[in-house]
Specification:
single chain, alpha/beta, Rossmann fold, two-stranded parallel ribbon, globular
Length: 312
């Protein structure tokens, strides 16, 4: 049985991935600091509490491991602007500690989960993997720096490293602190509050369901050499269109979006060119956005009803 370490396995995407890998028959070890997330236990998985900033913790967790999925990171762009050194220590130094731990333990296979934020404001759409990188925040810079370390270990030490640049991921169990625009819209509308739109609402994003993301990540474990893939749906949706969709699916069309001043530094348009991941991995996102949002609305209403019954 292949033994896989999932760093950040208690986070939103990491937890879904750990569950899927376990279902596929892998022996899964979840490595997480629990600093910003509570962990939904995964059947059959081992749980290791640790911090990537402390090399001995990382080295112990890698004992007997065959492959690593590296998702542990700080991801709040606005926080990174206030605390750039913290983001460097966790996202860059932490990745270096992991790579060095892998080198010592003889682990040569790693899948690194990066972000489309490394591209910055696009100069052309859709964004392909050879698009210039131009990180506009300490968070984005830290992800690109970690990618560079991964690339260097592939070329210097023969690691098999696959990097995925994720676009806007949504789905169940996304924490409130790190919730994307879909989760925030669903929560507000289900509470009878109008969605808040920053700026014109014509900003576009590429949304992909977390279920699709983990299916693609699971396919990458056997890739050799070094490569980079975009991971998105390949479809652009404006914030205005998204708000209309959430209001319609929730049956709350009487609520009108509240428009506030745009946020400084926000990227206006983003959509992935997914032709490479389709060609190499045979992957194409399957979950329609409307279906994914409908499921989120139903889940929120169900959980809210349960909470009301408990309190009642």
């Amino acid at each position: 049985m292949v033994r896989v370490l999932v760093t950040g396995g208690c986070g939103f995407i990491g937890n879904h991935l750990a569950r899927r890998l376990s279902e596929l028959g892998f022996e899964v070890i979840v490595f997480d600091s629990f600093a910003r997330s509570s962990c939904v236990m995964v059947d059959g998985a081992s749980l290791v509490k640790g911090d990537l900033r402390f090399a001995p913790m990382v080295e112990r967790a890698l004992d007997g491991v065959d492959a690593v999925y590296h998702l542990a990171a700080l991801t709040d762009v606005r926080e990174s602007v206030k605390k750039p050194r913290l983001y460097h220590r966790v996202n860059v130094d932490g990745t270096l500690n992991l790579l060095e731990g892998c080198r010592s333990a003889g682990v040569r296979r790693l899948v690194y989960v990066s972000s489309c934020a490394v591209y910055g404001e696009p100069v052309r759409l859709p964004i392909s993997e050879d698009h210039p990188t131009n990180p506009l925040s300490p968070y984005a810079a830290s992800k690109l720096a970690a990618e560079a370390y991964c690339r260097s270990y592939a070329f210097c030490y023969g690691f098999d490293v696959t990097v995925f640049r994720l676009f806007n991921v949504y789905g169940p169990r996304q924490s409130e602190n790190y919730a994307g625009v879909i989760s925030r819209f669903v929560k507000r509308v289900c509470e009878g509050k109008p969605p808040i739109i920053y700026g014109s609402g014509e900003q576009s994003r590429d949304f992909i369901h977390v279920g699709d993301v983990v299916e693609c990540l699971a396919k990458a474990i056997d890739l050799s050499g070094f490569d980079v893939f975009n991971l998105g749906s390949g479809k652009a949706v404006t914030v205005n269109e998204l708000a209309e969709l959430v209001l319609r699916l929730s049956g709350r069309t009487e609520l009108k979006p509240v428009r506030v001043k745009g946020r400084r530094g926000e990227i206006f348009a983003s959509v992935a060119d997914v032709s490479k991941v389709e060609r190499v991995l045979g992957f194409k996102a399957k979950k329609p956005l409307e279906e994914g949002i409908k499921e989120l609305i139903e889940a929120y209403i169900y959980l809210h009803t349960l909470d009301s019954k408990r309190l009642g």
